[in-house]
Amino acid sequence: MKRVLVSLAVLALMATAGLAEQWLDTDVEGLVENAPDKEDFPDDSAVFLKMQEMVEIAEDGSVVTTRNRLIKVLTLRGRERYSNQSFLYNTELSALSLVKGVTVRKTGRLVEVEGDAVNDVTPAFLKDASMYANVLEKVISFPVAGPGSTMELQLRENHEPAVDGSYSGIEHMGAEDPVFDASFTIQYPEGALAPSSVGYMGDMGTTTIMEVVERGKISYSVHNVPALVAEEHMPPATELYPTVVYSSYTSWEQPAAFFAGEFFPHVETGGEIASRVAALTQGLSSSEDKAQALFLDVATEVRNVHMPLGLGGYTPNDAGQVLENKYADTRDKAVLFISMLRAAGIDAYPALVRGLPDARFTESVPTLKQFTRILVALPDGDSYRFLDPFLDDVSYGFLRWGRGNTALVVRDDGSGELVQIPGFRASENLALKNMVVTIDGDGSAEIRGSCELEGYFDRKARRDLKDATPSEKQKLFDSAASVVSAGATSTGHSHSDLTDLTEPVRVVQDVRATELAVPQGDMMIVHLPPFPHSFASMGIYPALAERRYAFEFPCEFRSEIELHLSLPDGYEVAWLPDDVMLVTPVAVFQLTCESHEDSHTVVWKRSIVVNERSISRENYGKFKENYDTLVSPKNRLILLKRA
Q: With the C-alpha atoms ordered 329, 332, 333, 334, is the resulting torsion angle positive or negative?
């Protein structure tokens, strides 16, 4: 029966005029006929029978990009994942059209995507941001794409020639499900200089990406790419997929000059910009004080629009218009902040970076496509100090994005400089926690927990608390109390001014726990309570025994907790946890527990210092073993006995 149904599908495809308008050297009918079934891939929702892309550059610099997909759906999850496919594009720079969209059902019936199933909509992240109306999302809904069906998609995007005639891009050749065969071709005018390009495999398996260079054409292909299996705390997919980076530029000076021509004409230092700067810096004498005042204004008073750099082009709006509109993407925040700094007499330049920490950077292929956001670079001796005006929820001066990255700093004269931004030191992301626990003879306890937070932890706390209403905040503290002990209640809380980005975050909470300790005859069992608030902890743990990919924290960090336990009258210590000290280049784990008879207290301290945020598969096993040793339940247990 399977062969009959497949044959019907092939006949239906063959009967369709222009079956493979954009496919190159591809037997679409054969791929459909020999497509696997669910029993062949029991763990996957679909398979990509073919993934083919081509970039064709014309003599005038215009570019046509064709994208072809042939996807066999295996499960209902596959239908949900692929039946509605969306693509972002810039209407001012390109035109994106559907060439072909069909679903071939298991029965062989071919159903075309109809006109009302193709829609251009405003992306959700651009809601209420009409200044970026040129960016749209084309949504294509495939009909009846149930398990056993095959979807064929052909897209064509026509790009206007770049101002400087350049072309470049980054192409990923992988997916959440297996890819049998993927190819990417760059076709450029014969006689023109071949673009620089690099293809690398990522971390998806043992297959390799193949390169073939011909006259006027460079092709990359990869076969049998495994599925990208979701794994907690894994690297971003873009760092794992087989990838090609290409560019017609021959040096970094060329994209720097292009960007300078797009960016600096929109820097303004007069008019409303000058008036606002004068008001914000009145009475301030030092450049640092002025820079801080201007940063806080741009960061907190201009709403963030999270659009990746390049999607809307590289030309910002005029700084005055951004100031008037009070919302901005990464280009517009940078042009406004630089304008205000210069109006205050402070040198500043745009610095293009990848948003991901320690992101892969291919220096041999100069292209702006490698960058996703813009920081602001202030000259600082022989180097630069970097500020990100998007950071409206963390202490001033902290740099979250771009750490460990290579930045392209662009100057007014069109010159550019590649600058390495240092990665995090663990001490920059600091959580210092303290708990004072006073136990009564019946096992109840009064607890005060407090914390001082910096960097990543500072940002977590502000995001939880800064904009919460009084009732929302009360619910959060009530919920936190229940973390300490079953039935525990919050009896009070306070925190620093979270809207003040010049003041570190401090949070204090008082808790009454009626059943913290358990008296048993002459003994009392004390389970040391956890710190009540998740924002003061990394909240990421090495749970899996083995991993396919590296285990990644958001950043390097140091987390410390010190707990002072006041013993109830008539009790003394019977047993304490042993000290622990585990040191590796990746992380340092330490635990100490001391009894102080003179003060009738126990002091328990635990520290975790992670010096490398990305733990390789090779180092993961030892890291998990050390982590599990430190957080073992016995290390939070104290036994008391009657004196």
A: positive
Q: Which CATH class is domain 254-423?
A: alpha beta
Burial of 42 (0-12, 13-18, 19+ CB in 10 A): exposed
Residue with structure tokens 């008879």?
597
**Which residues does residue 328 pair with via DSSP β-bridges, in sequence order?**
304
Q: Which helix (H) or strand (E) holds 640?
A: strand 637-642
pLDDT at 200: 87
CA atoms within 13 A on the CB side of 536: 22
- Distance of alpha carbon 493 from the chain centroid: 32
The type of residue at 300 is T
DSSP symbol at 474: H
Q: Residue 355's pLDDT is what?
A: 86
Q: Given the structure tokens 């201007």, which residue do they identify? A: 294
The pLDDT value recorded for residue 162 is 92
- 158, 64 Cβ separation under 8 angstroms: yes
User: From 3.40.50.720, 3.40.50.2300, 2.60.40.3140, 3.30.450.40, which CATH number describes the 2-248 domain?
Assistant: 2.60.40.3140
Tell me the DSSP string of 380-399: ETTEEEEE-TT--SS-TT--
Q: Which two tokens stand for residue 411?
A: 């100057």
Say how many C-beta atoms besides its own lie within 10 A of residue 379's C-beta: 13
Which residue ranges make up each domain of the chain?
2-248, 254-423, 427-642
What distance in Å separates the CA atoms of residue 427 and residue 520, rounded to the nearest whole number? 43
* Under 8 Å between Cβ of 504 and 451: no
Q: What separation in angstroms does the CA of 430 have from each of 49, 453, 454, 456?
A: 48, 6, 5, 8
Low-confidence ranges of the chain (pLDDT < 50): 1-20
Domain 427-642 has CATH 2.60.120.1130: yes
**Which residues are CB-neighbours of 405 under 8 A, at least 6 positions away?**
353, 354, 356, 357, 358, 359, 361, 420, 421
* Contact yes or no for 67/53 (Cβ under 8 A): yes
User: 533, 586, 594, 514: which is closest to 562 by C-alpha?
Assistant: 594
Give every CB contact of residue 566 below 8 A, 6+ residues apart in sequence. 436, 437, 438, 439, 600, 601
On the question of a common fold for 254-423 and 427-642, the answer reads no
Cα separation, 65 vs 472, in Å, equals 49
Residues 527 and 132: their CA atoms lie apart, in Å, by: 55
Q: What's the CA gap between 234 and 226, in Å, rounded? A: 16
**What's the CA gap between 399 and 504, in Å, rounded?**
15
> Three-class SS of residue 573?
strand
d(CA 397, CA 380): 14
Question: Position 499: which residue type?
Answer: T
The secondary element (H helix, E strand) that includes residue 603 is strand 601-610
**What single-letter DSSP state applies at residue 531?**
P
pLDDT tens for residues 187-214? 999 878 899 999 988 887 777 899 999 9
Q: How far is CA 36 from CA 14, 47, 148, 151, in A?
A: 20, 8, 9, 14
Cα dihedral: 160, 162, 167, 172 (round 10): -60
Which two structure tokens, joined as six digits, stand for 98? 């559907």
Q: Which of these, 390, 281, 267, lies nearest to 320 by C-alpha position?
A: 267
Nearest alpha carbon to residue 178 among 370, 41, 332? 41
Residue 595 one-letter amino acid: S
Given CA atoms 161, 162, 164, 167 in this order, what sign does their dihedral have? negative
Q: What is the pLDDT of residue 12?
A: 36
First-to-final CA distance of the chain? 82
